[in-house]
Structure formats: structure tokens, C-alpha cells
Amino acid sequence: MSMISFGIIGGGWRAEFYIRIAKALPERFRIHTMLVRDEEKGRALEAKWGIRTVRNMEQFIEEAANMSFTVVSVPRTAVPDMLRELAEHRIPVLAETPPAADLAALNALYGSLPQGAKVQVAEQYLFQPMHAARIQIARSGKLGEVKHVQVSAAHDYHGISLIRQLLGVGFETAAISGQQFESTIMQGPSRQGDPIEERFVQSVQRIATFRFGDKLAVYDFTGDQYFSWIRRSRVLVRGSKGELVDSDVSYLKDYATPIHTELRRIDTGHHGNLEGYYHRGVTADGEWLYQNPVAPARLSDDEIAIATCLLRMGDYASGGPSFYSLAEAAQDHYLALMMGQAIESGQTVHTDQQIWTR
């Protein structure tokens, strides 16, 4: 397997995920150059990770011939201009989510990119091991025709991407209703680390329903779930012959034969196992539903998913298939924006076809 050399524009919290993945898999990935405009931050990254940094786009583009593609990891308001400039230089791009700030910017971006621009978006949730296994079950036919899902696993466009993947929904229009609820929770861990004192804060929960014709989805999420020790994620997928609840699967082999199984994580290094500590994959009914493409690297589920995006982007940049296009990303963000409108207004809102669906 050939080495994938890529560049990164940006030097923030999310960009460091890509750095950690590349350092954990030096035989698969190499970060050639990073564009970090802040001199102090750039020097700090060089000292910490040993990666060359530059300060402006001109310098970065000069290096692009030595890269398979570029990861753009900057604020959403800055992404469109970055994508357009890189596309003009025929540089394949893997953009962080979302690819633009609002609907007007999404439409302007999609309409302004040159034909043949090679752009994908790093929506990782569908590639996280357990979610990938759930999507495989939903598409396998074992549950019959899937008409209803409930997802409480990720915020906004991330959660909606899972909803569309599990329901098998493309660019269909939707009717969206929603509400917001606040409650008190004891503060838990965050990006800054573990809590240092007992403190109660407000937790904001957003609940919405999406009707795609005869299919219904329920979105339910509070931001505490990403780090919390006491708020867990939940996923329900219901079909005409069975259902999946988190990791439990029940379905009918025939009208008189119920089958009960579970999605089982296969992780090594437990209970004296000497293979090392890493994730192998997910099984059910004695078959692999998902196998980790970057095993035996010691990565979290989110890092495995991002590494999967990098592998697929390397293939895409070399002429392979799309895996999460700008149109898919725009649709998920558009639905998230419309969900926000429904929650704020208390009214049902209806989506329309957009430029990327025509």
C-alpha cells in the first residue's frame, strides 16, 4: 500500500487529529506541509510534531505538487474561499465540516467551483466503527424496509448525516419540527480536561422530527454527550422485519423464527490478551459487519473514522469513487440549518431542492 502524503491548512484543535493519526500510522500517512498563518503557533507545531509549516497560501501551493491532497481545517466562514482557490490550482481537497457557514454561502460555493473540482468532506461519523456496523445492518435487508430511526449521537449535520445514512434518504425534501429544552447537569469533562470542582451548569437539549415522505426520523442531542460520564448516546433503527437498539438486533428470519443477536466490538489487549491494544472490528451473527482499515494502530473510534476519510480521500484523489461529496455535506448542513429554524420558530418548516440537488 502506497504512502499518502497530504497537506493541512489550519492549526487548531481539529487539525491535531490529523497529526496524531499520521504519527500513529507513519507507514500510511505523511503530512508534507501545514499552512499556519500565526508565526508563534506554527513554530510551536514544528517543535512539537516535527512538521514543516508555512505562513501564506502562495508558499503552500508551491508545495502542492508533492501532496496527494490538502485537508482544510479552518473556521466555516473561511472554508469557501479556501476551496475555490485550491480548486483553481487543481488541488484535491478534503474539507472539514461544514463546508460553509449558511445556506447562501453553501449555494454560492457550490455554484462557483470550477467543473471537475475534486472536493470531498471529512464527515467522520458514518465511518466510526459502531455507526458503520449499524449502517451495514440497516442496509443488509435483515430489518426489512427501514422507515424510522432515532439518533442521539452527534450534533446538527453530524447527527443528520447518520439519520440519512440509516434511513437510506438521499436529497428528498423534508418537513421538520423541533423544540429546545434546558435542564441542570453537574459539569463533566470537556476539551480542557476533567472537572476540578463540583459545579452545576445548564444543559441544552434539541429535539426534532424529520419527515421524508413516509419515513420518520427523530433527532435528539445535547452537547454534553460528547464528553459526559452520565449522558450516553442512543440509536434506534426500525424496519418491517426487525429493529436495532444501540447494539442489540432483533429480526425475523421468517414469520415464525425470531433472531436475537448483538453488535459485538472486537478489541484486543483485554484480559491478558497480548496482541496489543487496538480495535479490530464489529461482528454479529458470526460475520464481520465492520473491520478496522487502520488496525493495529492505537486510535480512538473518532480517529479511526478520520483515518478512514484520509484513506478514501487518497483513493479519490487518484481517480477513485466519491465517499462523501460536497453535495452530501451541503445537504446535511442545510437540514441542520432548517432544523435550527424549526426549533427557534416553533413552526414546521419545509425544505426545498437546492443547487446541489439539481
Characterize the overall form: globular
Biggest sheet record:
9 strands, mixed
Stretches where pLDDT is under 50 for at least 5 consecutive residues are none
Specify the structural class: alpha/beta
State the helix count.
9
The radius of gyration computed from the alpha-carbon positions, rounded to a whole number of angstroms, is 21 Å
Task: Give the strand order of the largest sheet, numbering strands 1, 2, ... along the chain.
Answer: 14-13-12-11-7-10-9-8-18
Q: State the distance separating the first and last CA atoms.
A: 37 Å
Portion of residues in helices? 25-40%
Q: State mean pLDDT (0 to 100 scale).
A: 97
Strand content: 25-35%
The secondary-structure element order is EHEHEHEHEHEHEHEEEEEEEEEEHHE
Total strands: the figure is 18
Q: Could you characterize what this model shows?
A:
- The chain has 9 helices and 18 strands.
- With 358 residues, it is of the alpha/beta class.
- The protein is globular, with a radius of gyration of 21 Å.
Question: What brief labels describe this structure?
Answer:
single chain; about 350 residues; alpha/beta; 18 strands; about 30% strand
Summarize this entry quickly.
With 358 residues, the protein is α/β, with parallel strands linked by helices. It has helices at residues 15-24, 39-49, 57-63, 79-88, 103-112, 129-140, 156-167, 301-317, 326-345; strands spanning 4-9, 29-35, 53-54, 69-72, 93-95, 119-121, 146-152, 175-186, 200-212, 215-222, 234-239, 242-245, 248-254, 257-262, 264-267, 279-284, 287-291, 349-350. The mean pLDDT is 97.
